[in-house]
Protein: Phosphatidic acid phosphatase type 2/haloperoxidase domain-containing protein
Organism: Flavivirga aquatica
Amino acid sequence: MKSQKLLISIFILFYISKLNAQHFVESEKISDSTSIGNLALYDLKQGIKNVGHSFSRPLHWKKKDFMTLGTVLVGALALSTIDDEGSAFFIRQEPDVPNVFQEAGTRFGSPQVYFIANAGLYGFGLFTKNEKIRKTSILIISSSFTTGLIQSLSKTTFGRARPGNGFKSTEFRFWSNEPGFHSFPSGHTVLSVTMAHAIAKQFNNIWSKIGVYALGSVAPISRLFSGAHWPTDVGLAAVLSIVVVDGIDKFMFQTKAYKYKKEKRISWNLSFTGNQIGVIGTF
């Protein structure tokens, strides 16, 4: 069993590092002469700025932002009406789910593997002075710190009962320290979706995005099969992660925190002129 867990952890780390290294190293030339120590200090300061920006955003929300929040809450309420039936359905399927899938979900969403993977990613970007990898890793770190703090406080504040304990999805024990009442939101989902979304945003290729999101969805789905969370726990955790990542990513680009240049791509278009058909490439 231990060897199986080790192999799964290694596979996940290898997949992430291989996917990122291939894309980022090819698209980013090392030209920064700044010392590694100064780069690390700059990244630390930027990470703090990112977290501060995230928590201060609600103070600057506009009408459309509150409308978006209302839409999310309405959607969550609608999904909550099938929480009990939905959870029961997933739990019934669990015996037929391959053990490797469940183990991979547990591993990928665990803090240990999550932080080891990101430490490796950041370390590679730092020592090779690759700005794009550093920026992506700081995006992940900032977002995960923000979402992690929110989900940790929410678990205790709401004290929602977990499935399979004889309680319904509407059972809450506010400010509870009992693990059986720490269902909302899903911590595994927060970590896996945060990393997957941050990495997927760096790719323009749709198949690369699909691969990253597919890997990131393993943990949330596995938690439903294991009966650890209700569907709304997973759904709202995913929404939280996506919103935070998008907000921090936008902030970093707007403030030009990292000034790497994006790849110039050729845009191919079909041209119809009279009885001729041509292909035009725009640089």
Remarks:
- Strands lie at 267-273, 276-282.
- The chain has ten helices and two strands.
- Residues 2-28+36-282 form a domain with the Vanadium-containing Chloroperoxidase; domain 1 fold (CATH 1.20.144).
